Amino acid sequence: MPRFSNPSKLARIYHRLVNPPFQSKPISTTPVPTHDHIAHLILEQKTATKALQTFRWASDLPNFAHSQSTYRALIDKLCTFRLFDTVHQVLDEMPGSIGSPPDEDIFVTLVRGLGRAKMIRSVIKVVDLVSKFDETPSLKIYNSILDVLVKEDIDLARKFYREKMMESGVEGDDYTFGILMKGLCLTNRIDEGFKHLAAMKSRGLIPNTVTYNTLLHALCKNGKVGRARSLMNEMLKPNEVTFNILVSAYCREGNVVQALVMLEKSFGNGCVPDVITVTKVIEILCNEGRVTEAVEVLERVKSNGGSVDVVAYNTLIKGFCKKRKAKIAVGYLKEMERKGSLPNVETYNVLISGFCESGMLDSAMDMFQEMKTAGISWNFVTFDTLVNGLCSGGRTNDGFKILELMEESKKGSGGRISPYNHIIYGLYKENRLNEAVEFLSKMGKLFPRAIERSSRILGSCKEGSIEDAKRVYDQMNEEGGIPSALMYSNLIHGFCQKGLIKEAFELMNDMISGSYFPIATTFNSVIIGLCKEGKIGSAVNLLEDLIGRGCLPDVESYNPLVEALCRKGEFQKAWLLLLQMVDKDVECWCCSCCCQRGMAWIGSDMGASVAAAAI
């Protein structure tokens, strides 16, 4: 009989189990371990061999005899290592060792072990194995076999139920039918699931909540939420899971009205959906800008005894930030702390982003510093968000400082180029183009491939080889590269110089899609090009769109439009643009004849005074 390789070590473990450290005296001079102690010791072993040795070692302990529980622990461990031949040997020795055959829990353990090993035929044969010990398989054993089979092959499971269970006079219980329902729903046999439900009722069985929930989930997964809602009305006792399924389904459909109705119904039934479901409702409301209702949902959940975690609060905070109400969002940060849901890095990142998007850059910096005080480490998203906000908001020098902090941190940028592109964008927006080119060249050590391509594009644009520049740009995009604002600007100028206005216009759309908004010197080229092509309406629409996006025009933005409109005799439109220039404090130096002709067309004292102001 094998012995444990280190009996003294095992003896020490055993001694610790039977004599806990808080106990001043041993239980006795020869303490007898409990079966739970030995079972736990067997399950702790890292290999099957050691588990067997531990079991045999315990057999030799004075006054100790193995039981069903210690044999079950050993068989569980042997199944983990797929030593099924050894399992059969252990089973065979049980009657002689403890005076009784294996109990149903041991056979259930074996069934699950065989199931994990995908030995499906062997799972079915466990019924015959039970009979070998002159025992009748219990319903628990049958159900455990059925549970394994439905996960692999529902048809095989149904055959087992008919030929092995029903022919043996075992019709099963609600758990049996629930398992079969699970198998049907896993294979999307929803119609058969309804037939199965009817069969249960015809046998006098009342389907339990789990069975109904299984079918409800399958219906919702297949987009049949209305039918699921009707089925719920048949249920005697819908529970939290029932409402989780239906509320989540309505949220996936974007049907916020029905999601709220179902949420209210759950409260009326004394149920509170779990925090994941509640978060989905909050998210869908926030996405529609209905943050006040999201707050009401949060409060209702808490008042009904439901739990709200940091993810739910973060979702609500994000909703307020999207509405440009970051100051209100900070209030929920404080509430989180009072309620015991500690904010995390995501909480602060959302707030920093919200303040940046609202132009409240000092508050964003305060949040950044507060993270340090709260002991929350900055991550890449923190740095990237703040650098982007500062550079987009005209504080590129502050963006440089945050970038330096990121570089000093353990992970730095992690090979991601976006914070550096934000710096380039900031320099570009401030018209510090020479500094932007210099910074780009310094990036070469960190991103050699990307900067080499950027330099090729800038060089080709300077030389007038716009086709070569576009080719490199397309290749960069195909490989997932992220162009900088400087690159976009040079390409747009290059296209315009070649008269390729359509291509320049499309590239500017790409630039805006990448959250880089062009400055006047960039979009003026496109406006001039459109005017030269006689597409004055398109040029005016472009200017209006860019102003609506926050881009700042200059005199060169208006001058070609005013002149083109005056040449066409469209003095009213030209005059409206002049008025817009005055309104935006853009200094006008367009040709005096345009203003004089426009003034004559207006023919009013007001027109004359505005023209004089414009000149």
TrEMBL record:
InterPro entries listed in its UniProt record: PPR_rpt, TPR-like_helical_dom_sf
GO cellular component terms, A-Z: chloroplast
Presence of keyword Repeat: yes
GO biological process, alphabetically ordered: chloroplast-nucleus signaling pathway; mitochondria-nucleus signaling pathway
Keyword Cell inner membrane found: no
Membership in a protein family: Belongs to the PPR family. P subfamily.
Entry protein name: Pentatricopeptide repeat-containing protein
Native source organism of the sequence: Rhododendron simsii (Sims's rhododendron)
Taxonomic lineage from the root: Eukaryota, Viridiplantae, Streptophyta, Embryophyta, Tracheophyta
